[in-house]
Design a protein that fits this description.
This protein is of the alpha/beta class and 428 residues long. It is built from 14 helices and 17 strands. The protein has helices spanning 79-91, 98-112, 125-135, 155-167, 189-202, 214-224, 228-234, 252-260, 269-274, 282-287, 307-322, 330-344, 377-383, 411-425, and strands at 3-11, 21-26, 29-34, 45-48, 52-56, 58-63, 115-122, 138-145, 175-181, 206-210, 242-246, 264-267, 292-294, 361-365, 390-395, 398-402, 405-406.
């Protein structure tokens, strides 16, 4: 049994005087939070959090992690032009080992920025799983699935099924797996029905891009007579349990449908702005009780995996489009980045600093000019702080990063491998 005792921590959700507290961790869980030194932690590893703000680790609810390899390659383009003329041709050159290093680069960036879990949809996901296992981060993985025929021998589906059987629940419980139908425009109706059937047999949920662009909605209505989320539901996708990426153009009827079917939404404000896809009506979704987490999308359309930036943008953007300064206050934006994101990837005991929750914890260094004066720590974290203020990171009760250094990853080696692979993919 491993025990850790964090002392002198200020907790972001406390207030108004932010008393210094102890946080006790036993194995994977938070087992004590309080002002008084707890009994039963003799011999525990002590972490002194003086001058640090303790918060739950952020959850990146939608990304394509190995796309870090294509960061800054193909910017300022429309979505389909970008995909067809830059991204897909480069991805066609991916080989064994490439996504392992691309994933390690993304994990390093996320851990250094206070993100402790992510939901991924990409290729070579067995390599992604291995990188997750070795690094100590938490992840929910799906193999991106595209296809136009009903084929029970489909190689991509077989990879996703194997991923589920090999990795779901593994890495000390840090790894879970979903099926990953890419989008209505890359999967035929027959293929999507096959995936729903496969998900039912496995008992797995699904992670899918839906209603990302206005053109996607128009094409889906023209082809299937339904808007994308309603179309996905008609095939049984929402009944399987679905994490919906984007939902930018979700209609009021679809929002009611998502609430009824307990769908969760990964809101990607920065990627949606960069690709000029639009602004998702997340305040309407949250009003209906739909869990809305935050995602960065891939680093090719963002261009970083900075979840604190995403949190700030979510709080700012929706005030601007609703003309309501009370829309998504700091605490709600933070809840989206942590607890709602955890719900997106299937957890009820993650994303909060509470006894009984999984110990995914970040200590932020407040010894910076923009952390003064300290009227409201939550406001400072969401509106003023930098992701690089993350000093110490624990995932599943283990210290993964200390004083800004990720203990489980060799940064120099990762940078060198990523540069080598990216040069080959883009023919530099």
């Amino acid at each position: 049994m491993s025990k850790i005792l964090i002392k002198n921590a200020e907790i972001v959700t406390d207030g108004p005087d932010y008393p210094k507290k102890y946080i006790g961790i036993t194995d994977r869980k938070i087992t004590y939070i309080g002002k008084d030194k707890p009994e039963g932690y003799d011999g525990a590893r002590i972490i002194d959090a003086t001058g640090k703000l303790a918060a739950a680790g952020m959850v990146n609810a939608h990304t394509h992690i190995a796309m870090c390899l294509l960061r800054s390659y193909g910017d300022d383009m429309a979505l389909m032009d970008w995909l067809q003329n830059k991204v897909w041709p480069a991805e066609a050159g991916l080989k064994d080992g490439d996504c392992y290093w691309g994933t390690r680069l993304g994990i390093l960036e996320m851990l250094k920025g206070g993100t402790t879990a992510f939901a991924d949809m990409y290729f070579f996901e067995d390599e992604t799983a291995r990188a997750v296992e070795e690094s100590g981060i938490r992840a929910c993985l799906a193999r991106g699935l595209t296809g136009d025929k009903y084929d029970k021998e489909d190689q991509r589906l077989a990879e996703n099924v194997r991923l589920y059987k090999d990795w779901n629940g593994k890495a000390d419980g840090r790894l879970t797996v979903m099926l990953g139908p890419h989008a209505p425009y890359t999967c035929s109706e027959e293929y999507l029905k096959l995936l729903v059937e496969a998900a039912g047999e496995l008992g797995s949920e699904m992670h899918m891009h839906l209603s990302e662009t206005q053109q996607e909605v128009k094409d889906c209505v023209a082809q299937h007579g339904k808007t994308p989320i309603a179309y996905a539901d008609s095939l049984g996708i929402l009944d399987r349990g679905c994490l919906i990426a984007h939902a930018v153009w979700a209609t009021d009827e679809e929002i009611d449908l998502m609430a009824k079917k307990h769908a969760r939404v990964a809101h990607n404000p920065q990627s949606n702005l960069k690709l000029a896809s639009g602004i998702a009506p997340v305040e309407k979704m949250m009003a209906k009780g739909i869990p809305v987490g935050l995602g960065t999308d891939g680093a090719t359309s963002n261009n970083n995996l900075d979840m604190l930036e995403e949190t700030r943008l979510a709080a700012m953007l929706h005030k601007g489009v609703t003309y309501d300064p009370l829309c998504i206050p700091a605490a709600q934006a933070w809840d989206m980045a942590t607890y709602q994101g955890a719900k997106c990837i299937g957890y009820k005991d993650l994303g909060r600093l509470e006894e009984g929750c999984l110990a995914d914890i970040v200590l932020y260094d407040m010894d910076k000019p923009y952390w003064h004066p300290r009227h409201d720590r939550m406001s400072l974290l969401v509106y003023a702080a930098s992701a690089s203020d993350a000093d110490t990171v624990l995932v599943n009760g283990k210290v993964i990063m200390e004083k800004g250094e990720v203990k489980t990853l060799d940064a120099e080696k990762i940078y060198a491998e990523a540069e080598r692979i990216a040069a080959r993919l883009t023919h530099h």
